[in-house]
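Ticket #4471: structure export looks truncated?
Reporter: QA, pipeline team
Priority: medium

Steps to reproduce: submit the single chain below to the structure queue and open the exported record.
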Amino acid sequence: MEKKRGMRVAEDEYICINCCHPSSSLFLKYSDNGIRLTPCSNCGKAVDVYIEYDIVLVIIDLMLQYIGAYRHFLMNTSNRVFFTFFECNKWIRQRIMSGNENAYDLEWKFYECLLQSWLEMASFMIVLTLLSSQTSTKFSINKMVQTFCVGSYGNVFAVLSIIWHLHLVWSYRMLTELFVFISHVQTQRALCSGTLIRSILVVLTATVVSRSIGLLMDSYCFI
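Actual output as written to the record:
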């Protein structure tokens, strides 16, 4: 059991992963070795059952696209491991662009890929923020960055593609992109409690804008 994933800064507020109702705690400690999950005052279910799960089981539920797992990571933890998944996107882009260049050219392309990835991420989050501003819930910049990183965890498959020599296979890349797109849709549903259609449209718009900026940089900046 990982109690650290059930604790955050005092001023933060938890939510029920089932109905999104606010809660002041995730569990009650009644002895040195025993806790009881806090029941939700709205739906009566446990506020967050994932605090008793091993991290591997939570990741599996994320891969199965369970929205409760997304709410656990987005709203009830301060886990920063997902930031590394954004870096995977930069890595696979550099790997595809690299060929037989010398060390100087490879280093330059690394910084190009880093800048392009950061600009695409920034534009993606700006569009999400603008399109989600109509909702009653407001989130900080840190929360939006965390949302983007959690939605991008599918980019870890980019690392596997290098190992399996699949990074140039079109079908594998498309499946990875589809998985990341679905993950972003789920993060929007988990964070904003919006409808499925609205979440798809929001993520689709943000993706188109982000990719357009990336293509413009490829065409006019990195020649």
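Status: closed, not a bug. The export was complete when the record was re-opened. Leaving a note from the reviewer for reference: Residues 103-132 form the longest helix (30 residues).
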